Amino acid sequence: MKIMQKFIYQKGILTLGIGALLASCSDSHFEDINKDPNRPTAVTTTTILLSAEKQVIDNIRNENSSLRGSQLFAQYYSQNIYSDQSRYDIPRSYSDTYWSNAYKALNNLNEIIKLNTDPATKSIATAGTAGTNANQIAIARILKAYAFQNLTDVFGNIPYQSYGSQDPDFQALQQEPENLSPAYASQQKIYLDILNELKAAGDTLTKYKTATTFGTYDVIYKGKNELWAKFANSLRLRIATRIRKQQPAESKTHFDDALAKGVFTSNADNAVFKYQSLAPNEAPLYRATVTANRKDFAVSHVIVNVLKGDLGTVEVQDPRLAVYASKNAAGNYVGQPYGLPVAAAGLLTATDVSLPGTVVNAANYGEVLQEYAEVAFLISEYKNWDQQEYINGVTASLQKWGIAQADITTYLAALPKADKANVLNQKYLALYTQGDEAWAEIRRTGYPTFLVKPGDIVWSRTADGKTTDYKFQPLFGEGVPQRLYYPPKEQSVNLANYQNAVKAQGNDDITTALWWNK
Questions:
Q1: How high is the pLDDT of residue 41?
Q2: Which of 53, 301, 338, 477 could join 78 via S-S bond, C-beta 3.0 to 4.6 A?
Q3: Beta strands of 309-381 (E only): which ranges?
Q4: Between helices 45-60 and 133-155, what is the axis angle to 10°?
Q5: Which range of residues forms the domain containing residue 472?
Q6: What pLDDT shows up at residue 82?
């Protein structure tokens, strides 16, 4: 648990080569990375922010937690070699890596806040393009909220820390005096506090919306306070929607307030971390497939068939098909059957099926934290499946992927009217590559209903005159995992609090529903 309590950006964490992400940075920025980070004047808040943004996105979208986790659970991808994770055999070591890397990033973000509040360093923290103390703190709070929300959506109750609340259950990150065995806060407390953190941070940045913070070291928004404020409010829509069943009054209050103060209104507002074409800063999928020369992540037959118009409620080909997937060696779009037994999965090679499309699998791909299409779908749901917001969401997704206007018009004409199923189906298609959020929405809503379920036939193969039907049979659980196991290390370094968390939440397995989904 020391990894959570001590500020651990060793030189490898304020990442080697990360300055190359920003072509406009001078060579002096590289020098900052190699100084002693444990002294207040040794590292600038701009450099910490740059590192933390990359750490947060790298961790959420990395090979284990995303490609072998949420992207499989959402059935966007399917494995054509090692298919056990598709069937929910999830190595517990994945949790260790995801957990520890999340808290490293959170410690970096918390250090920005500390440097901007400590009387000995707060004047130093505003040097150069960093911006005011208040604005730096606000952006760090937003990114902390985003990272903590993803972390609690994976595990449930977790050690948590807040800038704005002194709740005694919030014991994570750097505490004074040092706490090496922090308690796990309830997900209910975490979610409500995240909403308050986002509200406070968004209000601050709206007040100073014409100012810039962190300059070009901020990969996501290039320091534009106004866009950060919109992101804070848009995240409140997501989180308020997630807790509507459990906290309807709090949900409505935050949703209405966020809408009034300003959320995303076009793709120009999207929160995106864009990677670089040069090593070592390529996008996570590219690193897993091209750099590592792996071909075992194919586009699933579920989403390929939906995009072809053969499955679901839209009976025309979706123009996003050519972006989301590539053709196989025969020149066809063929999805990898989802969740096959290992022996059967090996009967298909990478040339038989569709791999991720070149746009999606680019080295300089921009990983999305949140986008306008999602916001429009959230508003449609809030307004009892509003038709115009539904159309806005579909249009925004198509435009984001560069679809020609004529094709957008044709596709919109074929859309069925807005209702729960149709809005959530389109939201699912728009969230492609954002497996973490798609997985959460599948757990929350139960949609889309066209996803593979245990017992479904996913592939029929004829050989030597005999047809064999392969059914989807999970190795663990009975449906989409509700969470991941806590890291095994927690049982050795923080046993009492781990046990308390399990007692409060339920068994430490993948079938235990999270608070917002009970």
A1: 47
A2: 338
A3: 366-370
A4: 20
A5: 45-286+362-505
A6: 86
